[in-house]
Automatic annotation (TrEMBL):
Protein name: FdhF/YdeP family oxidoreductase
Originating species: Photobacterium atrarenae
Family membership: Belongs to the prokaryotic molybdopterin-containing oxidoreductase family.
Record PANTHER family: PROTEIN YDEP (PTHR43105:SF4), RESPIRATORY NITRATE REDUCTASE (PTHR43105)
Keyword list, A-Z: 4Fe-4S, Iron, Iron-sulfur, Metal-binding, Molybdenum, Oxidoreductase
Amino acid sequence: MSQKEHIRDYKAPAGGWGALRSVTKSWLGSENAFRNLRTMLKTNQNGGFDCPGCAWGESPENGMVKFCENGAKAVNWEATSRRVDPAFFAQYRVSDLAKQTDYWLEDQGRLTHPMRYDAETDHYVETSWNEAFALVAKHLNELDSPDQAEFYTSGRASNEAAFLYQLFVRAFGTNNFPDCSNMCHEASAIAMSDTIGVGKGTVVFQDLEEADAIFVIGQNPGTNHPRMLEPLRAAVKRGAQVICLNPLKERGLERFQNPQLPVEMLRNGSEPTNTAFFRPALGGDMAVFRGMAKFLLSWDREAQEKGEPAVLDHAFIQEHTCGLDDYLNAVDATCWDHIVEQSGLTLEEIEVLARMYRRADKVVMCWAMGLTQHRHSVPIIQEVVNLQLLRGNVGKPGAGLSPVRGHSNVQGDRTMGINEHPPEALLNALEKRFQFEVPRMHGHNTVQAIQAMEEKRAKVFLGLGGNFAQATPDTPRTHRALRSCELTVHIATKLNRSHLVTGRNALILPCLGRTEIDMQAEGPQGVTVEDTFSMVHISYGQLKPRSPMLRSETSIVAGIAKATLGNHPIDWDWAVADYSRIRDLIADTIPGFENFNEKLKHPGGFHLGNTAANRVWNTPSGKAQFRATTLPTQLVNESVLEKGDKPDLILQTMRAHDQYNTTVYGLDDRYRGVFGLRDVVFANEADIRRLGFEPGEKVDLVSLWDDGRERRVSDFVLVAYDIPPGQAAAYYPETNPLVPLESYGDRTFTPTSKFIAVKLEKAKPSAVIPTQQ
Ligand SMILES: Nc1nc2c(c(=O)[nH]1)N[C@H]1C(S)=C(S)[C@@H](COP(=O)(O)OP(=O)(O)OC[C@H]3O[C@@H](n4cnc5c(=O)[nH]c(N)nc54)[C@H](O)[C@@H]3O)O[C@H]1N2
Ligand SMILES: Nc1nc2c(c(=O)[nH]1)N[C@H]1C(S)=C(S)[C@@H](COP(=O)(O)OP(=O)(O)OC[C@H]3O[C@@H](n4cnc5c(=O)[nH]c(N)nc54)[C@H](O)[C@@H]3O)O[C@H]1N2
Ligand SMILES: [Mo]
C-alpha cells in the first residue's frame, strides 16, 4: 500500500466535522465553488431542484440547508466543468479507456456531444442528434420482433422522461423493461403487494416523529441516506426506541453530530442514533422475526390464560387480516434451535427484541438492501409484515412499513410504468387513452435481459441512465452479453464502463442533469419526482447546461420515439415543448395524478396516497394477508453445496462512503476506517487466522457455484474488522464478478449481492501490508 492507502480506526461520530471537511473538500475541488454552493443551497427547496442523490424525503419544516454530505458530493459531481468532448474521444481509443478504473472514467467530466462508436478506428466520433436517432430507429425497426430489444432504466429518470419512455417502448411493442429496481427493492414491492396490497412504503416523515419504536434493518443510512440520521437521533432524544439489526456496527447507526447545528458543532457533541443494536447472520433476519413472533404468541396465550390484556391486537387482526391460523401454525412448527442457529442471535437476544417490540404501541420498520438482496428476500420481508400485522402496526399514525428507496426517483419510475410485469390496469388505461394495442406479455427483468443478450435473443440495448455493465452480476459474462449486441445506446451524464462495453454499433447520448436548466420550445421546464414517502414534487434545474449540445432525457426519448414510430401514438415534439402536457397525459392514465399540474402548485408537492396506510387492502381477499412460509432449511444455495466445497466465508457486497452505486467519488470509506483503496475484504480476525492468513495480506476471492465457471477477483487486502464470525464484506461494483447470474432471489430475480459463498486463496504474488492503527 502506498502512503495514502491506509486502514485505521475512525472514532468520530457520523456527520460532524468529518462531514463538513468532506463537503468543503468536494466543493472546493469542484472548480466552481461559489456557483456550486449557491446551487447546493437550492437543493430540495421549493422552486429549487430535487437532490439527485437518494430517495429520502423531506421533513415538512422548511430549513435553510437541505443537503447532506453525500448530496453535496452528488451535486458537485454533476456540476463539474471538466468535459468529455470530441477531442477527448479523439485522444483515447475505447480499448485504452477500458483499461482505466471506474473512478478515473467518471472523473474526466461531463459528456458534451452525441458520440457514435467507430469499430474500425476503435474511437467514439462526434455525430449529430438526428443521425443518432436515425441509427437507433434503423436498428429497432430492423428487428424480427420488438422483444429483441432491452430498454433499461436507472432510477434517476424523472417522471416525465420515464412516462414518455414507457409509452414509446410499449407503442414499439414490448415490455422489456429491465431496471435498477430489479436489483434493489423488487422484493419489497412483491412482498408488500402480496400482503398489504400495495408495493410501496406506508409511512410518511411524520410517522417517524410519532413512533415509539423505529427498527432500522439491513440499512446503512449514515452513508446512503444521511438525512435519515436526524430523525433517528431525534427519536432517541425524545425517548423512543431505535433498534438496529445489522451485522456491521455502522457508524451512522451509533452516533451522529449534525453538521447543520452550529451549537452542537462548537461544543463538539454528538448523540446516539440507536438504543439497541443486534447483529444477525447474513440472511438470518427471517429467523429473527419468526423468533420474535414466537415470543409474542406465547405471551399472548399466557395473557389469555391469566385474563390479562392481550399482546396481539386481536381487534385489528379480526377486522383487517386473514390467514392468521395458518401463520400461527407455521410459527408453532418452527423450532427454537432452527431459529437460533439461522438468526445468528442468541435466544436471549431475540427475547429482548420481542420485549422491546411488545412495549411499543407504534412501530415503524425501515429496511433496505440488507433484506432485499437475498434468495429468500420475499419471505424475509413478509415476516416483517406478519409481525407488524400481529400488533396492528400498519395503517395508524406513527407506525408502518418503510422500505427506504435508493435512487432519487426509482419509486416514481415504477409508478410511471417502468415495469416488466406491468399491472393490467395500467395497460388498460394506456390502451384506452392512446388507442393502440399494448403488449400484454411480460418482458425481461435485468437478469433475463442479460440471459437474452447472451443467447442473442436480444440485439439492441438502450440504457436510460445507469451503468448496466457494472451494476449487474457476473461481470465478464454480462460484458460478453452486451458486446454481442448489434447496438448499445446509453443516455448518460458521465462516461462510465457501460459505454466502453460496446455492441457492434454504439452510441453515447449526453443528457442534462437535474441541476441544469431545461429549456424547451415553450420555456424552461421542471420535472417531477416521487420520494420514498410517496411525496411528488417538482424540480427546477438552476445551472446553465455544461454544453449547448446537451438535451434533456425527456427530449432524447422523444427524439428516439419520433425517429422510430413517427407521430405515433402522440406528437412527440408537441409533448416535449411543454412538460405540463406530458403531466396531463400522466394525469389521464396513472391513478393518484388527477389534476397533476394543479397539485404541483402546492409548496412541497403532494402525497400520492397509500391504500394500506388507510387500512384499505387491495388484495384478492380485501384483507391484509398473513403469509405462512416455513423457515428455509439452510441458506447456502444447493448449487454451492453441490460443488462439494464448504465456503470459507459468506460475503456481502455493499457501498463505501465515497461512492454512489457504481460512481466512485473518492477512495475513502471514512466511517469504516479505510482510506485510499477499495479492493479490501473485511473479515473477523479469528476467521482470517483460522483460514491461514494474516490481516493486511492480499487474497483472491473465489465464489462457489456449480456451473463450471470460475468467478474470481484478485488482490484484495484482508482487513481485520468487527464483523460476526463466518461473514465477510467488500465493496460493490468491484465484487460483482463473484455474483453468479443464476444466484438470484426467488420470485424477485434480484442478484443475491448480500449472500455470496466464497473461498479465500493466496494472491500471487502475495504481499503483506501492515495495518496502521
Ligand atoms: N451516498 C450514497 N447514497 C446512496 C447510494 C450510494 O451508493 N451512495 N445508493 C442508493 C441506492 S440505489 C440504494 S438501493 C440505497 C442502498 O442503501 P443501503 O441498503 O444502506 O446500502 P448497502 O451499502 O448495500 O448497505 C446494506 C446494509 O445492510 C447490512 N446487511 C447486509 N446484509 C444483511 C443481512 O442479511 N441482514 C441485515 N440485517 N443487514 C444486512 C450491511 O451491513 C449494510 O449496513 O442507497 C441509496 N443512496
Ligand atoms: N454487488 C452488488 N451489486 C449491486 C448492488 C449491491 O448492493 N451489490 N446494488 C444494486 C442497486 S440497489 C442498484 S439501484 C443498482 C444501480 O444500478 P444503476 O442505476 O445502473 O447504476 P448507477 O451506478 O447508479 O449509475 C451511474 C451512472 O448513471 C449516469 N447518470 C447519473 N446521473 C444521471 C442522470 O441524471 N441521467 C442519466 N441519463 N444518467 C445519469 C452516469 O453516467 C453514471 O455513470 O446496482 C445494483 N447492483
Ligand atoms: Mo438501489
